[in-house]
């Protein structure tokens, strides 16, 4: 039997900060959890859909998380998977997310691959009763999720502000009034608790008595962030809603935008990670981790995403052009984007002229592209600031020997026709990792480069990533 949860968070990662618990504090919904578990485990092996409905911020994802990770559920189902679906979704990508978890492989760029058919076969073959199908008519009555009761609201706020300690008696009345003003919304309680916890509680708790609207709470939380954290938070809205974001990705991306720089005491990676956990402690960012994957990921709530997107566009941090393209028109040009630091076009096949124009973007730090040319154009020699290069390629036969003097990460994914990585990449002293997928013939040249760098520097500094378990496939979506 199989369980697929849609719009569910990943498995929670427990992590402690210096003062408070970092992560999600869960209060309430025991009755609702037990009801859903009973519906899931006491029925025949046929398709069923259980919907949880309520206003944003009411705790739907939290309840789904509790159910998904309950021992009685994980022991009952042979296959468990979860995915998120936004209001504007691509059904193919949703199927791919489920497929990746059920099959254990990534078929995102196998154009002729019938994911629906293969997923149906896999669910059949791995189900005890062999009665699971991807179509059916049974739907349980939707669960109209209640808001938190007053005592649950106060319990959540108290835990968020004081951790394992109890609220002082002289502040309890004020605290309970704040909880009442949040009207049972877990998101509002979590946000406002995060703000209070970062401040001097005794002097500032009363100033939050009249905060009730969720957006006002989010704005308040944002206002109290340190200045260097604000653009880092807004940047997360460049991802789709409900997208899980690997913490390891943010090192390159924040660095490419100039948000993070190393100092005398910490590397870029260490500074970036400290920023992530500061944002988590503010409750604006939620820490999760997929089952079986060590690399933690983060998410932001839909309402936080809405706030950050509006704020980012107002601050001119970035903007969105809505549309679905697999190929850009011939009259598209990039020369007007010469100050660009990050360019991602992983799903679009670039024309030769556009590929050549990328070489004009001399400030690029992060480049993610899919190409069908036989080699990089000579103009790529101008990309002297490039730190991260990710190539999705189905027909090229060589990787250019252009000099990328500050390149730190090279990913070659599904590049089945590439024969080798030029030895000249071994002369890039900043190179930290080479990631390969679906091309075993590149392993020899990657290993040769690793050995060369070790011999020249006396350090084993180059990391080779050669398996799905290690590579974060198409991370910068």
UniProtKB/TrEMBL annotation:
SUPFAM superfamilies: L domain-like, P-loop containing nucleoside triphosphate hydrolases
Pfam families named among the record's database cross-references: NB-ARC (PF00931), WHD_DRP (PF23559)
Annotated ranges, domain Disease resistance protein winged helix: 239-307
Gene3D superfamilies membership: Helical domain of apoptotic protease-activating factors, P-loop containing nucleotide triphosphate hydrolases, Ribonuclease Inhibitor, Winged helix-like DNA-binding domain superfamily/Winged helix DNA-binding domain
Cross-referenced InterPro entries: Apaf_helical (IPR042197), Disease_R_plants (IPR044974), LRR_dom_sf (IPR032675), NB-ARC (IPR002182), P-loop_NTPase (IPR027417), WH-like_DNA-bd_sf (IPR036388), WHD_DRP (IPR058922)
Signal peptide annotation: none
UniProt GO BP: defense response
Superkingdom of this protein's organism: Eukaryota
Domain called NB-ARC: residue spans: 33-126
UniProtKB keywords: ATP-binding, Leucine-rich repeat, Nucleotide-binding, Plant defense, Repeat
GO MF annotation terms: ADP binding; ATP binding
Family per record: Belongs to the disease resistance NB-LRR family.
UniProt protein name: Late blight resistance protein homolog R1B-16
Organism of provenance: Nicotiana tabacum (Common tobacco)
Gene designation: LOC107787856
């Amino acid at each position: 039997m199989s369980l697929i949860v849609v719009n569910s968070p990943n498995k929670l990662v427990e992590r402690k900060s210096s003062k408070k618990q970092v992560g999600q504090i869960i209060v309430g919904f025991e009755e609702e959890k037990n009801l859903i578990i009973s519906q899931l485990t006491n029925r025949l092996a046929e398709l069923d859909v259980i919907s949880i409905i309520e206003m944003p911020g009411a705790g739907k994802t939290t309840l789904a998380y509790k159910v998904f990770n309950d021992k009685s559920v994980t022991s009952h189902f042979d296959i468990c998977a979860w995915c998120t679906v936004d209001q504007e979704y691509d059904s193919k990508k949703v199927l791919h997310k489920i497929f990746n978890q059920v099959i254990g492989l990534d078929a995102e760029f196998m154009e002729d691959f019938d994911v629906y058919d293969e997923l149906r076969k896999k669910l059949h073959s791995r189900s005890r009763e062999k009665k699971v199908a991807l179509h059916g008519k049974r739907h349980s009555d939707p669960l109209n999720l209640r808001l938190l009761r007053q005592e649950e609201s106060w319990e959540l706020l108290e835990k968020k502000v004081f951790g394992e300690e109890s609220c002082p008696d002289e502040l309890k009345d004020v605290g309970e009034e704040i909880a009442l003003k949040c009207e049972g919304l877990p998101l509002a309680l979590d946000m406002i608790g995060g703000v209070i916890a970062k401040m001097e509680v005794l002097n500032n708790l009363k100033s939050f008595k009249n905060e009730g609207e969720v957006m006002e709470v989010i704005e308040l939380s944002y206002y109290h962030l340190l200045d260097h954290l604000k653009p880092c938070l807004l940047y997360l809205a460049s991802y789709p809603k409900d997208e899980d974001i690997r913490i390891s990705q943010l090192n390159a991306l924040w660095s490419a935008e100039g948000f993070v720089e190393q100092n005398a005491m910490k590397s870029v990676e260490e500074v970036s990670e400290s920023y992530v956990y500061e944002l988590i402690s503010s409750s604006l960012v939620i820490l999760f981790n997929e089952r079986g994957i060590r690399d933690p990921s983060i998410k932001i709530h839909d309402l936080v995403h809405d706030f950050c997107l509006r704020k980012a566009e107002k601050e001119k941090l970035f903007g969105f052009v809505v549309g679905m393209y697999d190929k850009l028109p011939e009259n598209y040009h990039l020369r007007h984007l010469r100050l660009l630091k990050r360019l991602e076009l992983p799903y679009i096949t670039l024309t030769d002229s556009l590929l050549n124009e990328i070489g004009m973007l001399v400030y690029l730090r992060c480049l993610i592209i899919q190409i069908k040319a036989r080699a990089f154009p000579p103009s790529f020699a101008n990309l002297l600031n490039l730190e991260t290069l990710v190539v999705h390629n189905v027909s090229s036969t060589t990787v250019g020997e252009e000099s990328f003097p500050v390149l730190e990460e090279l990913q070659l994914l599904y590049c089945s026709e590439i024969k080798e990585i030029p030895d000249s990449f071994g002369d890039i002293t900043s190179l930290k990792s080479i990631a390969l997928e679906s091309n075993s013939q590149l392993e020899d040249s990657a290993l040769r480069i690793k050995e060369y760098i070790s011999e020249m520097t006396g350090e084993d500094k180059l990391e080779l990533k050669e398996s799905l378990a290690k590579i974060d496939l198409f991370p910068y979506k």
